[in-house]
From TrEMBL:
Sequence ranges assigned to domain NADPH-dependent FMN reductase-like in this UniProt record: 1-143
Alphabetized SUPFAM superfamilies for the sequence: Flavoproteins
InterPro entries reported for this sequence: Flavoprotein-like_sf, FMN_Rdtase-like_dom, NAD(P)H-dep_reductase
GO cellular component: cytosol
Official protein name in the record: NADPH-dependent FMN reductase
Pfam families hit by this protein: FMN_red
GO terms for MF: FMN binding; oxidoreductase activity
Superkingdom assignment: Bacteria
Amino acid sequence: MTIIALAASSRDQSLNVALLDVILTALDGAAGQVERVDYRLFEDTPQYSARREAAEGPPQGMKDLADKISAADGLIFVTPEYNHAIPGSFKNGIDWLSRISVTLMAVKPTLIGGASASPYGAWRGMKSLRPSIELLGALTMPYMISMSGVGSKADIEARFQDPMARVRIDAALNAFRGQMAAKQ
């Protein structure tokens, strides 16, 4: 089993990179082989336009990522929230991926997470991600992992140890594990 994992941030000390690390540790091998995508691919991808697509086709980096996603058994996307949505470079990359294949993520178990120092925990960003990837066929889990009011990886790790928080975290992780197991 192969999982593509992406934290939509390349910032030093990123809370979302930290959350992805903690999620992968919590899955403890149940995720199978994990390939992490470097978010700089998204940051370096040119802005999508129909004119550019007609003249040049999709960027090679996005075609390579599409091949990896197509071959993967599951996906984990962790995103910050920018103005109640996902980062523009993340949406731009998804737009390019959609031009490669509208069924790219078809029936792939997909776990979504997000972390923020704000009281909303990137909730609105995660919520805005769902329609874009569901359009590509992603089988999103009914629960997402939202970390609000965190300022460091240590805060996220502590939240993963909190029995009250673990109820929702475990619901998301178990749904993802269950969908991955069903693919075997």
